């Protein structure tokens, strides 16, 4: 039997490896982690019904914390914001498609709210460029 997936452990491992190798944050790696969010939502929740949604939201939240730190330092890139926006959209859709994942929508809503605070005042652009909206 395979052990359950754990998005929080995956994200923590990737971030640890990244910061161990360099002080710089590779935003392409962050985008890759964000692209996996909806897949991990399904696997974490189905392989670990007791804690899967919790491990998933912890991982997603950690990624957004990194984005917030990059934004505070003026280093956050549009591609990373777009990847995060797309991940939120995909996770929202996945959560609405499976009854067992419905509880994860509150986590997606929280992450989306944090991401929205990174946008320009109009809530539709980041540094003047349009952000991915489904």
List keywords for this structure.
2 strands; mainly alpha; globular; 6 helices; 134 residues; two-stranded antiparallel sheet
Short description:
With 134 residues, the chain is an all-alpha fold. 66% of the residues lie in helices and 3% in strands.
Give a topology summary.
Blueprint: H1 7-21, H2 27-35, H3 37-47, H4 52-72, H5 78-97, H6 104-116, E1 125-126, E2 129-130
Antiparallel strand pairs: 1-2
Q: What does this protein look like?
A:
This protein has 134 residues and is mainly alpha-helical. It has one domain. It is built from 6 helices and 2 strands; from the N terminus they run ααααααββ. It has helices spanning 7-21, 27-35, 37-47, 52-72, 78-97, 104-116; strands at 125-126, 129-130. A two-stranded antiparallel ribbon has the order 1-2. α1 runs parallel beside α4 (52-72) and α4 (52-72) packs parallel to α6 (104-116). The mean pLDDT is 95.
- Using only C-alpha atoms, the radius of gyration works out to 15 Å
Number of helices: 6
- Which sheet architecture does the biggest sheet show? 2 strands, antiparallel
Shape: globular
Low-confidence stretches: none
Count of domains: 1
Q: How many β-strand runs?
A: 2
Structure class = mainly alpha
Report the span from N to C terminus.
37 Å
Arithmetic mean of pLDDT: 95
Sheet-strand content, in percent, reads under 5%
Q: Could you spell the SSE succession in H and E letters? A: HHHHHHEE
The amount of helix comes to 55-70%
- Biggest β-sheet: strands ordered side by side in the sheet: 1-2
